[in-house]
Amino acid sequence: MGKQSKANECQGWLKALLKAEQFTFALLVLIVILASGGESWGLPRSGAEPIKNYQVSVVNADNNKMVVEEPSKSVPVGEAPKPSGEITKPEETPEPEETEQPEETTKPSGPKVWHKKIIRQFPGAGHKVAITFDDGPRPEWTERYLRVLEAKGARATFFVVGAQAPKNADLVRAILASGNEVGNHSWSHSFLGKVPEDVVRADISKSMEVLEKITGQPIKYFRPPYGSISPQLVAAAESLGVKTVTWSIDPRDWAKPLPEKIVNHVMNRVQNGSIILLHEGHPGTLVALPLLINKLQEKGYELVTLSELLSGQ
Q1: Could you say which of 62, 134, 135, 189 is catalytic?
Q2: Residue 134 annotated to the active site
Q3: Residue 60 within any structural domain of the chain
Q4: Total count of domains within the chain
Q5: Catalytic residue among 185, 189, 265, 279
Q6: pTM to 2 decimals?
Q7: What distance in Å separates the CA atoms of residue 299 and residue 132, rounded to the nearest whole number?
Q8: Which of 8, 186, 276, 311 is 20 to 30 Å apart from 65, CA to CA?
Q9: Catalytic site residue 185?
Q10: d(CA 113, CA 238)
């Protein structure tokens, strides 16, 4: 065999060896990426918050299209009235889990008569439903919900945290001025179903006093934070002349699902007299709201306040 042939053969083996080494290296890199969950390589990790880095903005002043935006794309998801500027997600503290059925924190023996005093829905309302918002008032958020409701001809009930009301009194008054209703969501937003009756009464009463001073109206309804309920909580609210209200539909919007999932969850469960739980301060909820209202109205539902829903009770 000539020298040239040997050289060609050596080059062929060398190329094959390099290809094998490149494949091995690529395989090792892939294994490392998968083992790390892909996060440090710019890949989405499993279970990542679906809208964490999204923004909401109006991109068409004529038809008020609201979109959810990533840095590289915009996807229309519904219509809404004009919010000013962009909505960016504020810092949030984790919330304990809420469920379709509010948490019962005590297990009393005998008939649960107190359960019958809790309002979860009112089928006798006819073709009406009540959307409710918890955890406000929140600057830059409450007014946006109000604009959506006004544009869609819908009304809702806002359960306000008493401690947040004095510094946002204008927002509380704006809720009423736009035809919506204010409810009591406690003073401290703590687990009131786990404390004695006198402690619950003091908390509800403190919040009621502040809210009634701001609104000039009596507060009719109380919603316990996290849906934490107990006989002593219901008794405390009753002694103050307010009704305890929870919900019949909870799309868990605080867990940051996609807006479409919020809408689908509600529409798959809605019926006459449903009370729907939503929260302030979540971009997905704001984007879902006009879509949800459209769907409900297409089904012939009238969106009303709790007082309007329960007027025939």
Answers
A1: 134
A2: yes
A3: no
A4: 1
A5: 279
A6: 0.68
A7: 19
A8: 276
A9: no
A10: 13
